[in-house]
Amino acid sequence: MSAAATTPVPARPKKRRGRRNLTLTIGLVVTIAFIAMAAVSFFYLPHNPNVPRIPDRLLPAGSPRYLLGTDALGRDIFSQLMVGARTSLMVGAGGALIALVIGTIAGLSAAAFGRIADETISRSADIMLSIPGMVTALVLAATIGSGTLTTILALSAFFTPSFTRVIRSAALSVLQEDFITAARLYARPTWFILLRHVLPNVAGVMIVQFTLYFAAGILTEAGLSYLGVGVTRPSISWGMMLNEAQQQVGISSPLAMWPGLSIVIVVLGLNLLGDGLRDVLDPKLARRTS
Amino acid sequence: MSVPNAIEVVDLVVGVDELSAVRGVSFAVPARGRMGLVGESGSGKSMTAMALMGLLPPGWQARGRVLHDGVDLLTLSDKALSSRRGRTISMVFQDPMSSLNPVRRVGDQIADVIHRHMGVTRRAAHAQAIDLMTQMNLPRPEQLARAFPHQISGGQKQRIMIAMALACYPQLIIADEPTTALDVTVQKQVLRLLNAATRERNSALLMITHDLPVIAAMCDTVAVMYAGRIVEHGPVQKVFRTPRHHYTRGLLDSQPTMDNIALDGSSRLHSIPGMVPPLHALPSGCAFHPRCPAATDRCRTSMPEIDATGAACWHPVPVAAPAEAAS
Amino acid sequence: MSPVPPVLAMEQVTQAYSHPRTALFRAPGTFTVLDCIDFHVHAGEAVGLVGESGAGKTTLTRILTGMEKPQSGRVLFEGADIWQAGPAERARFRRSVQMVLQNPRSSLDPRMKIGTALLEPMRSLRIDGNHLDRLTEVLGQVGLDTSALERFPHEFSGGQLQRIAIARALMPNPRVLVADEPVSALDVSIQAQVLNLLKDLVRDLGLSLVFIAHDLSVVAYTTHRASVIAGGRIVETGPPVELFTRPKAPQTQNLVSAVLTVNSGLSGNAL
């Protein structure tokens, strides 16, 4: 036999990854900054974000002691943003995480356990998708009261069906591969094939979807709070800050700018992170370039 | 007067970033000529085809000249290029399923091409489409024209693709592995059809494939590609009967044929040792030298060009010893 | 006659699938994929199975390897019906009949190192012991070395991956290798390497080989005896060269006349 067949293909130079890595880096930096901001808020806040200080009301950004100024009641904007980040993080990550877990289990089951399981799960997902999420969240908030937990539950109910669908189709394409046939030939049970072969191969999809739904969760939460059915004080949300600032538009417009800007940057950062991760993690892309 | 060329490729280089899949390829297909471009995966043959059609994947760049109908295709805008695609130059792909629009009836898809490029009314285009389908030996064309791509067989789809490619009497048809996805018995029918239809319409044919027998059956000249370069070029009869490049000879020898097989199954197939090098780790000098039985130090250090022998090789196969496959 | 039963055999195997139900109260229609198939391979013998896509090759492979139970008929391993066998017998069957699949890129998990993938049959078939020596031995048999163990599939070329897939099949020391179109996804120059490797393995290890392909000439290089399958039935059996030069069944004639060769192309009578 040929000796040359022994040598593996040399690793491909890494240079091509440059542009993808930039997207990933920006996304990663923004996301880490966001999480750090939320984490620090538990230990340190420049001011109590809920205590009004009427003499200091409506100070502009850059005032001494108030980095981004104060609102109509003299509460520090930056401190409010920090506590708001906490809410966004919890609601966004919480909603996406619950959807991730349930969606993955449901999606894998639909793909692997035969036609009846597939029909049941897929049609249930269709039915859930046909109910508008925002309306559900509003009804939930009106009936069982608004708050962080309600929002998380509403979001996860809203995200799970789409998650299920994505995981199902990714799993279906993995299940068609020949290494699954090989595993079946060795009499591996289905649950084992799912855990050992399918899950690692859809992990990339899962992570990317998670970041995208994380971002979507933050947006939805802001929307709900803006409508007044999200969190209530003493909790603070960027959406709630937008709502409050709305009354000051014209008097002090930057008030609405800070929470708005925070939402835009964090959502953009998470989306960039998702895009960057997709390029790095997609096994098909890796296979095609090799 | 020399015959004008259907296409002339001069020093084509196709690459992405610092990698080149095609490294200086030149050839010409004369009007009504039939040329084969043969190579294994990774030889750059498909990237050459994509560059000719302006269909390179994002990020890929082509340099050099591609002269067709008096213009350099590489300098044309996307718009100018797409008005030519399907009219003066058209393509038949390997996978007919992904080249047809799944939600449009096949008859309408052929008619679309005719309507767009020939300036006839929709009605006339449709009549011509049916006519074309009849010429492609498709059964009950009126009925079949109303079918969607998923309702017809692979061989029928490839005939539809050929009909679309031929609809506007193009000067050149590029066929990229047109029968690889088809069953062996269907392959022959489709090749026969492509052969007859291009001759009737005086279209030149550029056949791109890894399959030497297909080239032998369809083409007048052949260019053998290896690692992004043409290593041997000439008339099919000459190249396949008396290959001068060791790679060509190796390919011919590794064809499984029934001609020289032992009855007890003891025959061994000749094989070329090693493997096609990846783009980012091309050997120095002649890229084939690590697999070549005749390689010397010269082959390791300097790259040969195609010379009078028709092969790019420092130590061409002697003519006196023809390849087994041609004996 | 020799009383030794074939190592692997099918007797009168018929398999039919049902169409998806179109109406609630109408029984779904069925179509027969395999129709009374008899097929066998003796120890140390290489047998070919040739047919077009849709002829029933895939189903036959699945039944032969015990992945699918036939509707009627028997699958015999060393003379005993595998669907009647006890757990110990079935485990021995699983160990002894191994498969090589068509597309080497798809038949290895891209997230699994080669070393892990090669041990997978041993783990799932619960074969105990230290397998390091076996790994080295098997890799040597397919012409690779142990540096492959720590690498991932995407680091190898198609031909190398097919060698690895063959190595995986060899790991549990099988008696029969079932190869389903093992070279059709490979380049011509690599095809020859893999075909020769399979031949060497049959000769050196005394393996039985069932070689499934659509190309009669490829089968002729690797097997002593071949069957042509068409429309779910075996229409003709004989030495490949015989089938090629004097085909009797019309389906065999079809297959033979479809084969293109360089020589017929050069002489201008290929099409």
Which features would summarize this protein structure in a list?
heterotrimer; B: 327 residues; alpha/beta; Rossmann fold; four-stranded antiparallel beta sheet; 12 helices; globular; C: 271 residues; six-stranded mixed beta sheet; 37% helix
Describe this structure in words.
The complex is a heterotrimer of chains A (290), B (327) and C (271). Chain A has 290 residues and is an all-alpha fold. Chain A has one domain: MetI-like fold (Orthogonal Bundle), CATH 1.10.3720.10. In chain A, helix 2 runs antiparallel to helix 3 and helix 8 (238-246) packs antiparallel against helix 9 (254-281). Chain A has helices at 18-43, 77-112, 114-130, 133-144, 148-175, 178-185, 190-226, 238-246, 254-281, 283-289. Chain A is built from ten helices and no strands. Chain B is of the alpha/beta class. Chain B has twelve helices and ten strands. In chain B, the strands form two sheets. Chain B has a six-stranded mixed β-sheet with strand order 6-7-8-3-9-10, with helices on both faces. Chain B has a four-stranded antiparallel β-sheet with strand order 2-1-4-5, with helices on one face. In chain B, a hairpin with a 2-residue loop joins strand 1 and strand 2 (19-30). In chain B, helix 4 (106-118) crosses helix 5, helix 4 (106-118) packs parallel to helix 7 and helix 7 (154-166) packs parallel to helix 8. Chain C is built from eleven helices and ten strands. In chain C, the strands form two sheets. Chain C has a six-stranded mixed β-sheet with strand order 6-7-8-3-9-10, sandwiched between helices. Chain C starts with 7 loop residues before the first strand and ends in a 5-residue tail after the last helix. The model of chain C has no long low-confidence stretch (mean pLDDT 86). Chains in contact: A-B, A-C, B-C. The interface between B and C is large, with 48 and 46 residues. Chain A: The chain crosses the membrane at residues 22-45, 89-113, 134-160, 198-219, 255-274. Chain A: Residues 85-274 form the ABC transmembrane type-1 domain. Chain A: Pfam families: BPD_transp_1.
